[in-house]
Design a protein that fits this description.
- The protein is of the alpha/beta class.
- It is built from nine helices and twelve strands.
- An eight-stranded mixed sheet has the order 5-12-11-7-8-9-10-6.
- Helix 8 links the parallel strand 9 and strand 10.
- The N terminus is likely disordered.
Length: 250
Amino acid sequence: MDVKCQNRQRLYTIEDLENLLEYVPYEIWLKDKEGRHVYINQKGANKLGLKKEDIIGKTDMEIRSKEFWEKCKLTDDQVIQEKKALFYEDEFDMNKDNLTIETSKNAGYINNGELVVITAGVPVGISGTTNLIKVHVISEEIVKGIGIGSKTVEGKVRIVKGEEDCIDFNEGDILVTTMTDIEMNPYIEKCAAIITEEGGMTSHAAIVGISLNKPVIVSATNILESVKDGEIVTVDASRGVIYRGSTRVL
């Protein structure tokens, strides 16, 4: 074993890794160079209709049909000979990444606001490399609307349904309302961003936001029901998305 690897501090245990793989929505198995299974997650075992202990230590020839085994054997041989991963784009669903993130959050491995790098297709025998990478910011998306501007800001929600709701409006608050009008201009000047349930690209909120260079999201359906007055949100105008809490947006 490489000395540098021996001295490197491991931040997780094998048990941690196995537990995480159980939450991943893919069939995952690992084989040794002879083709014997050294690991398989529960989803993979379920697909085969076998228990894990009946799979570990066995080859595909022992647990699969002849037709499938021959396909697996060709695939394994190709990986070993070419020393690179095989990537089947038509079988890969990037939307499953969202489920992977969600299940990892539920398991307590990651939290909101953290940055996660998802990699796949690691070439055999070449450490530290990948042919697929996706950077994901862990966050809870509240509502998506039409974004105007390119800024991302965070601040305290101030729900405004009438003039009386604007008494304690502070500099840097996020103005959340059904629609804006000229009477709200003094509060719009104070706010860090504007979110409206209704309206479009030619609405009062959109025009004023462009004029004052403030991020705006319009047509944010059900935003008034989805946030509470005083809570912190992050407004990503470039994507038209409102996130709960303080979130780093790429």
